[in-house]
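User: Can you help me understand a structure? I only have the sequence.
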Amino acid sequence: MKIYEQTIIVKPDDLDELNHVNNVRYIEWVNDVAKSHWTKLATQDMLQNYFWVLINHHITYKSQAVLNDNILLKTSVKSSEGVTSTRIVEIYNYDTQKLLATSETKWCFMDAKTKKPARITSEIINLFL
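Assistant: Let's start by predicting it. Here is the structure, written out as tokens:
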């Protein structure tokens, strides 16, 4: 299982009225890192012919992040079967290595032409192993 990492810095737009990162922003980060992981590994042909849609999302918040925190996003694909994959995302404070949130999401692999679910091929599975 390959782990993909991305770092970001908390900006004013990420904050809620309590001056810590809004819970919705964590969900956006989960989506963004999943997309980045896919676009980094997939071939141009794969990107043109397939896409992923989110079908289930579970997130657990453990600690807060605040303005200017360095955030480390780690993601990997836990499993793939049929037309779905399960992805794990861990969100850390980069400087302290404190775990801020964990997420498990289920994604459906889609054919770009038909807009219908497509069986995940071994070629796609191997991108993430």
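Now, to help you interpret it: The beta strands are 4-9, 50-61, 70-81, 84-93, 99-111. Residues 23-41 form the longest helix (19 residues). Let me know which part you'd like to focus on.
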